[in-house]
Write a structure and sequence with these properties.
Layout: H1 2-9, H2 22-31, H3 37-50, H4 54-58, H5 62-69, H6 76-92, H7 100-104, H8 111-122, H9 131-140, H10 153-162, H11 167-183, H12 202-205, H13 225-237, H14 245-251, H15 255-267, E1 272-274, E2 278-280
Antiparallel strand pairs: 1-2
Length: 283
């Protein structure tokens, strides 16, 4: 049922195309973390045009990766992807491994990303539990409005039992669950009339009981240290050479917050202090 719905309704995304390499799938999964598809698409295309292989990225500097990351947000992902490329070249001949444990050992690759790459790049049978999948499982099978904050053992076991034994079909069901959550089973206004699981959805049959989970506090951005960090990186991305602190002050006037942002960016490896009190992207 899910597989046939997916065949009819899925979006055409480049990382799902049969020609997409395992490296392309890995790039997409890291870019898609906490970032919507609409923002990822142009960055993904430009990234793979420049670095179509792990070896190509590994031959560039981490600063090049941070610069190319642009305004996708959470730029440490660029450093982790660069570190993963170095590890792939050093340990796997530049190829993305099919083994989930080997994927998990790559820098910046957690349980979710390792499972996603194994499932989507290598058509293996793995439960892939992103936010969308977890919401579908919570509603359709557990009868609650939303999933818990952290993945539970019971939730993972449920996801595993729902997958067909056939690896190829299981990988399709994994991505179909994800697409169902993204396109139909929305967090706030699910389109139940369009859902292939509507007749068996436990949450719908129970009358849509409200969530009992504590409301999540909305994250702010304006005026935060995160915005200050972004302002610093925006300046450094357009300069090939390190810049004076005065150029950064022009981008962020609050000196105390700027110092805090600079200290954090240096600690994270996203920028480097240079001679003369200048700052630049890592080389």
């Amino acid at each position: 049922m899910l597989a046939s719905w997916y065949a009819r309704s899925a979006r055409e995304l480049p990382w799902r195309h049969p020609s997409a390499s395992p490296w392309a799938v890995l790039v997409s999964e890291i870019m898609l973390q906490q970032t919507p598809v609409s923002r990822v698409l142009p960055a993904y295309t430009q990234w793979l045009e420049r670095w179509p292989t792990a070896a190509a990225l590994a031959a560039s500097s981490p600063g090049d990766a941070v610069r190319a990351w642009g305004r996708l947000g959470y730029p440490r992902r660029a450093l982790r992807l660069h570190a993963a490329a170095l590890a792939l070249v050093a340990e796997h001949g530049g190829e993305v491994p099919a083994d989930r444990a080997a994927l998990r050992a790559l820098p910046g690759v957690g349980d979710y990303t390792a499972a996603a790459v194994a499932a989507f790049a290598f058509r293996q049978r793995h439960a892939v539990l992103d936010t969308n999948v977890r919401r579908v499982l919570a509603r359709a099978w557990s009868g609650v409005a939303s999933a818990t904050r952290a993945v539970t053992v019971a939730e993972r076991q449920l996801a595993e039992t729902l997958l067909p034994d056939d690896d190829q079909l299981a990988s399709v069901v994994s991505v179909a669950l994800m697409e169902l959550g993204a396109l139909v089973c929305h967090a706030r206004a699910p389109s139940c009339d369009e859902c292939p699981l509507a007749d068996r959805c436990a949450w719908r049959l129970a009358g849509y009981p409200a969530s009992t989970a504590p409301a999540r506090r909305a994250q702010t951005y304006q005026g935060t240290d995160r915005q200050a960090r972004g302002a610093v990186l925006s300046v450094l991305r357009v300069h090939a050479e390190p810049v004076e602190r005065s150029a950064l002050t022009a981008a962020w006037a609050d000196g105390v917050q700027l110092d805090r942002a600079l200290d954090g960016l240096v600690a994270d490896g996203l920028i480097s202090p240079c001679i003369g009190g200048k700052f630049g992207l890592p080389t």
